[in-house]
Specification:
The complex is a heterodimer. Chain A is mainly alpha-helical. Chain A is built from 10 helices and no strands. In chain A, 79% of the residues lie in helices and 0% in strands. The longest helix of chain A has 39 residues. Chain B has 7 helices and 10 strands. Chain B has a 6-stranded mixed β-sheet with strand order 6-7-8-3-9-10, sandwiched between helices. Chain B starts with 11 loop residues before the first strand and ends in a 6-residue tail after the last helix. The chains are: A mainly alpha, B alpha/beta. At the A-B interface, helix 7 and helix 8 of A face strand 6 and helix 2 of B.
């Protein structure tokens, strides 16, 4: 056998990824075809794809579900960044503020976002508000705590040196504290985005009248299991696309980290 | 040996300096009756075991910490004492052992940060001066656009020395800048620092736990005791400049080393046996 020339790692991995995904789909199709016990009621990938193609691909309502879920995720996520980043910065830089506020944060943080569902339905005027609020809760504490940790791990040498070189407190905040915290903001965004998708889907199943979570749930209620599969795959895809977007932003937030 | 010229600044007179940390009543005496004099333009090295308070002394001079006893004069003027803590300033810039280049700025932006921040130079002039200094100090100008993480630790430290020199400091404070390096890189950095010091003769206070490095580089070596730190021994290094590697095998060098090696070892042993955690 001839000595093979080393191929670039990426092509090798892509080739294997393609094999893994198609292998999974073939296995799924075969298990359903041969009516393996327990899998009798589950539609195969081909059937799901056929239903998707004939009934959903050109269906405006289906794409409206994407829009509805994405809008909730974006609103909740953005609100969480807008409030969570300043909160984390304040917690990290103002000692008195931390002493007064951090215990409350630690009290509320362990409450799972979905435990907020009943209260937020009672409190907010519309279900739409409630769902966005719960999505916000999902990402808010994560981003705040990550930024807080980011501030605390700033190297004191950087602050000292900036002061030696003539920087004022405001300059130190803008040129030392903020850039030091950017990587932590990136991590908070990645984790926060994953949680917002988790939360929005569950919240839609409980309280929504549209969205991808609702679509999946309605598939279950109406015993059309192909819709359940279409909903699940759509949710997975939406989460994946969001993660890609966040990874893109994260790379640009801190380009010096290669 | 650098002759003290009229333009040389940075004479340090440290008189019975004391520093007691008092976190919640448990007094830790880092410095006690610590006295030494550094002439303008002199390269002084302080050698001592880990946690002996040598970094504390340097941080006080840099303005990151205050004295609790004694006083320090800079160029004859009272500079720090119990009631007087100078703010950090561009006349006393530190190069730290782990490096403290700002990772989010490229090399050039790091180097011009001081002069542009203090508005002593317009940005264009600062850039020009920085590129020239980077070029002279080991051809670093080719790395001007790169981020610190893309450089070796030796290159990072060289850039940091340039960043400090850009401010024309009265005294250059070096806090074990080559500690984390392997022996081979260290000899390269020593050569580099000697060259830079010949080009830009500044007062240097160099902190290290490495006696051989101290003798090779400095005009005067001070041996510091284990905590509470004070100066146990001062050693004039009469080796001529420029210093060369073959001096490390010369009789004069070995004689100098023999004079203080026992003192350094004794203090290191005390610190080791006490087994205390290093003081920041």
């Amino acid at each position: 056998m001839a000595v093979s020339t080393p191929r670039p790692l990426s092509t090798r991995i892509n080739w294997r990824s393609a094999l893994a995904v198609s292998g999974f789909l073939v296995l799924w199709e075969l298990l359903v075809r041969f009516k393996v016990p327990g899998l009798a009621t589950i539609p195969g990938p081909l059937e799901s794809l056929a239903v998707f193609w004939s009934k959903y691909a050109a269906n405006e309502n289906y794409w409206q579900s994407w829009v509805a879920s994405f809008r909730r995720v974006m609103l909740g996520f953005l609100a969480a960044q807008l409030l969570g980043i300043p909160l984390g910065l304040l917690l990290g830089t103002r000692e008195r503020f931390r002493e007064l506020v951090f215990p409350v944060v630690e009290l509320l943080r362990p409450i799972p976002p979905l435990a907020w569902v009943p209260l937020s339905i009672l409190f907010w005027p519309t279900h739409e508000f409630s769902i966005v609020f719960i999505t916000f809760i999902g990402a808010f504490f994560i981003i705040a705590i990550n930024v807080f940790d980011g501030v605390r791990s700033i190297r004191p040498e950087h602050v000292w040196l900036a002061r030696s070189l003539g920087a004022s407190d405001l300059r130190i905040f803008c040129r030392i504290v903020l850039p030091s915290v950017l990587p932590a903001i990136g991590v908070g965004m990645t984790l926060g985005m994953a949680v917002t998708w988790n939360v929005v889907i569950a919240a839609e199943m409980i309280a929504g009248d549209n969205g991808l979570g609702r679509l999946t749930w309605e598939g279950y209620v109406s015993h059309t299991s192909t819709v359940v599969i279409i909903g699940m795959v759509s949710i997975g895809l939406a989460g994946y696309l969001s993660a890609l977007a966040i990874a893109w932003i994260e790379r640009r937030l801190a380009p010096w980290r290669n | 040996m650098t002759a003290p010229g009229s333009e040389l600044r940075g004479g340090l007179s440290i008189r019975r300096a004391g520093k007691t940390y008092d976190p919640r009543g448990a007094a830790v005496v880092a410095l006690d009756e610590c006295s030494l004099n550094v002439a303008p333009g002199e390269f002084a090295a302080i050698v001592g075991p880990s946690g002996c308070g040598k970094s504390t002394l340097l941080n006080i001079i840099a303005g990151f910490d205050g004295l609790t006893d004694g006083e320090i004069l800079l160029d004859g003027k009272p500079f720090a004492n119990r009631d007087l803590s100078p703010p950090p300033g561009p006349d006393r810039v530190v190069v730290f052992q782990n490096g403290a280049l700002f990772p989010w700025m490229n090399v050039l932006d790091n180097v011009i940060y001081g002069p542009t921040r203090q508005r002593v130079l317009p940005v264009d002039d600062a850039r020009k001066k920085a590129m020239e200094m980077l070029r002279v100090c080991g051809g670093l100008h080719t790395a001007a656009e790169r981020f610190p993480t893309q450089l070796s630790s030796g290159m990072q430290r060289r850039v940091e020395i340039v960043r400090a020199l850009m401010n024309e400091p009265a005294v250059l404070l070096l806090d074990e800048p080559f500690r984390a390096m392997d022996t081979v890189s260290k000899t390269v950095m020593h050569r580099h620092l000697l060259d830079v010091h010949a080009l830009y003769p500044k007062t240097v206070l160099f902190i290290t736990h490495d006696l051989e490095e101290a003798i090779y580089l400095a005009d005067t070596v001070y041996v510091m005791t284990t905590r509470p730190g004070h100066i146990k021994r001062a050693l004039r290094v009469n080796l001529p400049r420029p210093r060369t590697l073959d001096m490390l095998a010369s009789q004069a060098y070995l004689d100098l080393k023999r004079q203080v090696a026992e003192d350094v070892h004794e203090e290191a042993k005390k610190a080791f046996e006490r087994g205390e955690r290093e003081l920041a």
